[in-house]
Amino acid sequence: MQEQLFPFSKNRYFKKKRMRSVDFRRDQAFADGKLSFLSHWVFGSGVAMGLGVERMDSDSLLVEPGVAVDPQGRYLIVDEPAVCRVKALDGFQELRGEGALLWLVYREELLDPMFVTDDGEQSMQYAVARERYAFVLSEEEPLPACAAERAVFSRCVLLEDEDVRVTQIIPRVLSAGRITRLTLSVECFCPETLELDLSYAPVIPGFVDALSGGPPRLSRRLRLSKGETLLTLPIRPAQAGQAAPFTLAETALTVEKRGVRQNARQSFFEEFPVAAGDPLPALEELLVSRSPQELWEEERGVPIAGLRFVRCGDKCLLDDVIPFGARNRVAVPYLRESLRRAGACYEALPSEEGIPLLGTLDAERDGGEREERTEVRWMTSGSVQLNAGVNRKAGSVLTSDEIAHGLGPGTVYVEFGIEDIYPLPRLDRNRTELLLGDISLFEQAGGTYDRDMDRGVRVHPDKGTFEMAVRLGCDLHRSMIRLRWFAWKPEEDRPKAEERTGKLLRLTPDVVHAVPGEVLCFIPVFTQGEAAPCDFFTADKQGGAITRDGVYTAPSREGLYQVCAQVQGQPEERANAFIIVKARENADEPNGV
């Protein structure tokens, strides 16, 4: 438990009071403490908006701008896209497993240094402390619940492995006059769809299944996508009582996936009080009976994503990023009230029964899965990197491969600019600029280019593709140029709805053992649509060779290597596979995947 901030102390002013440095610090602590106290009890802690996390390559990720409130009520504002090298983040060296949590934490940036003389000695102090942020890694664990939630809910992780985690959530007061819903949180970490059979049968004397009238039991066959799924088991009282012992044996929870059955990792027992009628007053009494210090949070940041690594020896590659999204969001009353007022302006048409016109900030208000509507796209965007290699002199021409813009055959207009993301000197943040038109009009464009570049686009209407070319106006100081393109159809040629291209899910196989020189074939797997053409490449120049069709030849040197595939024209849709190259000790030993 951290140092107590309250009761708060403030300066008492009177005529001719002599102000000391401690008095000024007291004023500042009073204002900061009051704001943190108010934010903590109004918003809680979590992500307010933005802060999406994407994987860029095997060693870096991109965090989108956004706002979060940490458990101490401090505001963490990421004001621009942040590119992070995973191995350079605090906490990476302490990781030992293949999973981690990415945290956004509060930091202060000290500015305006000055020399101060005290007792005849000089020391350097900083006059300004700017509120900033940092990204930190920790070992993978269940997302920490806030203190108020821990006070009213009993949470227990029943089963956890590399694919799935099952957590039991029970309100700490059961009802003798109403139905109580028990919840199982099933978190899936697999990038592809995971099928499993789940059976859950707790023993609760005096309560029965609200639907069947028999002993409480939940049996489901699930098809899980990456993320969290909530299952509920409604129970109702069968006889009066003041307390109900809740028991779950290890064999009372079973999960069967890929033909393997697992039980709960430990048994569970807890006795819950039973309220006559509405249990909310009893829960409220349980909550407000705690002291504010008991419900104050320990000093931690805000978790924004889970990370998955692939390890081989001393190598560690970033495999996947699992954004937490709406699961860890805080309620922002101003935004919620604005949304409520906007929702009052709409009324469903008679033919649109039950179709929601406006969403909500709470993901829990989605009663079930919504049917995905097919949209007709008439504008697309994407980015591509041009590797300059040795062609960095003024006058050199760099060209891209043929890119599919995704709008189909026909007339399409394409415009592109230079997208530059680079770190600011002596600061822990990056700057993003998109350079369009004549960039020589700016004194310093992008921090890198100070003269114009000739640009050209060649469109292939019959194939639905295009190519880009850049002629350097000055010597290039980087090994690559990142281009952001925009493609759109004219109004009269916009297509009608058609079947969408599927989403690139993974490569098969995704992890494979091979011997030096062995030839393998990687196949991209798509979901919810048709397959799209992909570009294959290796993450390491010494990582072997791969053809356009995904035929890979392992290198002669042992080690961990990575093969990447991305949908043409859509570099954000990427899948990876890992090859562990090692010579067989026994020539007769078969290759295993």
Termini, distance in Å? 47 Å
Largest sheet: 5 strands, antiparallel
Number of strands: 39
Second rung of CATH, namely the architecture of the largest domain = Sandwich
| Low-confidence regions | 348-375, 589-593
Which geometry do the CA atoms define? globular
* Lateral strand order in the biggest sheet: 9-10-12-16-14
CATH fold-level assignment of the largest domain: Immunoglobulin-like
Count of helix runs: 5
Give a quick rundown of the structure.
With 593 residues, the chain is mainly beta. The protein has five helices and 39 strands. Strand 2 (53-57) and strand 3 (60-63) form a beta hairpin.
Layout of secondary structure:
Layout: H1 21-43, E1 46-50, E2 53-57, E3 60-63, E4 66-69, E5 75-78, E6 82-85, E7 99-118, E8 121-139, H2 147-152, E9 153-160, E10 164-171, E11 174-175, E12 180-188, E13 194-200, E14 207-209, E15 218-224, E16 227-237, E17 243-248, E18 253-257, E19 260-263, E20 268-275, H3 280-288, H4 292-295, E21 302-312, E22 315-323, H5 333-343, E23 379-387, E24 397-399, E25 403-404, E26 413-423, E27 430-435, E28 454-460, E29 465-471, E30 480-488, E31 503-508, E32 511-514, E33 519-521, E34 523-527, E35 534-538, E36 545-546, E37 551-553, E38 559-567, E39 570-581
Parallel strand pairs: 11-20, 32-39
Antiparallel strand pairs: 1-4, 2-3, 3-6, 4-5, 7-8, 7-21, 9-10, 10-12, 12-16, 13-15, 13-18, 14-16, 17-20, 18-19, 21-22, 23-30, 24-29, 25-29, 26-27, 26-30, 28-29, 31-34, 33-37, 35-38, 36-37, 38-39
